[in-house]
Sequence to fold (268 residues):
Amino acid sequence: MTTCEFFLIRYVPDLIKNEPVNIGLVMLDSDGGERFAGVRFASNFDRVRCLAANADLEMIQALSEDIRQKLASASDRQQMLRIIQDFSNTLQISETCGCQTESPQQEIEKLAELYLESVPAIKEPRAVAARGRAALRRKMLGSFEDAGVLTLMETGIRVSKYGSTHDELKIDCGYRLDSTMKLFHAVSLQTDPDYTKSLAFSYPRLAAGLARMEKAEARLTAVIENNLDRKSGPIAFAYEAFEESRIAVATLSEVPRLAEIARKELRL
Fold:
């Protein structure tokens, strides 16, 4: 059993009201709780919008990515705290809490789910589907982060930059290797198999745009849940759509291997 510590990063949209929203979680290792072990951020910042309708969510997203990169190089707890506090006076840090776990990697995912994600009050299908992809995306990005490569990858890649200006899809992450752009996107076939249609529609435009504008060949991998029944109608259809659109498929359990390949290709 390993003893770890963690603290929350909180965003305060209104300093007068002082109503914070949890947006991030930092875990420290068991060696006196001094060394950085991992960080997770909310899969979306809708909870911030609930408190501040005019909040700049893109700015918060960019702030989170910047913090993620700098924390990875922090040498001790005090440096971590300084990094966060130096970013903005709208960020606060919670008290440190302890936990015991057999797997720090699994524990940080559970804690992130508990402290950072909203639970739909009504089991409305779209809300459940969004939550399924959000959890899958967070675990996928966590594997790349654990391999030390996420800070070297591009995240939130806008399809509209390369294709239709009205396409709101963002590919979760990717990196360039010579003339190839390797892309990864979480797709929850368990909760929303129809999401495959949107991805299959948008990807060819993205690939064409990358070839035209960046002279790069796109290779997209859809990351799905483990142990799905491929004989099930919706799952079988999703696989057919992926194949027709030349989208590779990997299960969540395969992502650590993909992250290790990325680590070697990025020469870390």
